[in-house]
Amino acid sequence: MLDRINQLAEEIKSLAASTAEEAEQLRIKYLSKKGLVSQLFDEFKTIPNEQKREVGKVLNVLKTQALDKINELKESFASNGQGESGADLTLPGTSFELGSRHPLSIVKNEIVDIFARLGFTVADGPEIEDDHHVFEALNFPPEHPARDMQDTFFIATNPDVLLRTHTSSVQVRVMEKQQPPIRAIFPGRVFRNEAISARAHCIFHQVEGLYIDKNVSFADLKQTLLYFSKELFGADTKIRLRPSYFPFTEPSAEMDISCSLCGGKGCNVCKYTGWVEILGCGMVDPAVLEASGIDSNEYTGFAFGMGIERITMLKYQIKDIRLFFENDKRFLDQFKSAE
Ligand code: 2NL
């Protein structure tokens, strides 16, 4: 019997478990009522009395060793944080990377928020358009030279299917459906057949705005755009309007803001003029109102349009427009803290 006790003692010394569940199985195997150690105790009752003293001593030592060993195994699981799966729950979790909003979306959202505070709603419409909504209703007659201002993507087999060159087409759709007052902005993607360079792309984004009601004046236009410029570029921003031409507005103007980088002192962003152009605007031509069923004797309105890329490049000092469309993470990651 002593031999079997010693054999079991060796066995118990080298016990190992990799989960709490395995440790419990070992406790059952050795220490439960029918376990191997308990069986030896049963057998102990049958041995001759003169052997009991010596064998009893060794047997008690075996029992203590078994208890200690199995408790030790169990405690190792309780204290190192390993769950039954064997996973170490004290390790840091696997982190997952948060994306960031695209810089064009950040700026578009900012523009939408600013105009929302002035009561402008947002509307959108199709990118694939027809001649009527992109040109005809906006005062571009078929042979008008102004059509040359846009290099348009047409579908070769049907010139009445084209990619919109500005979001003014959405404004036409709104005017055709809704009588004034109309106060809305129109963010969206537009397409022009231009050679791609650091400053131009064949796909870009615009926000246009339209305000039509009784007695809307050029002063309303100026004040709205001044508020917008101060909100987007800072309270010290000044604006200036230069006469210009668009087929759908009369009078028309281009608007500059005082250079947000040098504060108007002159730098290479403003080409040492102190001013940077950010948008075009004007009073909606009465012919445009009439073409969409709005009485130009009763209503007047102003409209404006800006390129989101241009404004984003100015705001974040981005030197190449192509960066917006390359999805290079090294570029996009730089906007993680923006917004
Ligand atoms: C620019 C200039 C402009 C408009 C857009 C507009 C729309 C309607 C009627 C009249 Cl339906 N005008 N839009 C007016 C003036 C300028 O955009 O430089 N855009 C990037």
UniProtKB/TrEMBL annotation:
Cofactor stoichiometry and binding remark: Binds 2 magnesium ions per tetramer.
Cofactor(s) annotated in UniProt: Mg(2+)
Main location: cytoplasm
Pfam families assigned to the protein according to its UniProt record, in alphabetical order: Phe_tRNA-synt_N (PF02912), tRNA-synt_2d (PF01409)
Record flagged with keyword Aminoacyl-tRNA synthetase: yes
Gene3D superfamilies: Bira Bifunctional Protein, Domain 2
PROSITE patterns in alphabetical order: AA_TRNA_LIGASE_II
Catalytic activity: tRNA(Phe) + L-phenylalanine + ATP = L-phenylalanyl-tRNA(Phe) + AMP + diphosphate + H(+)
Quaternary structure note: Tetramer of two alpha and two beta subunits.
Protein name as annotated: Phenylalanine--tRNA ligase alpha subunit
Organism: Carboxylicivirga mesophila
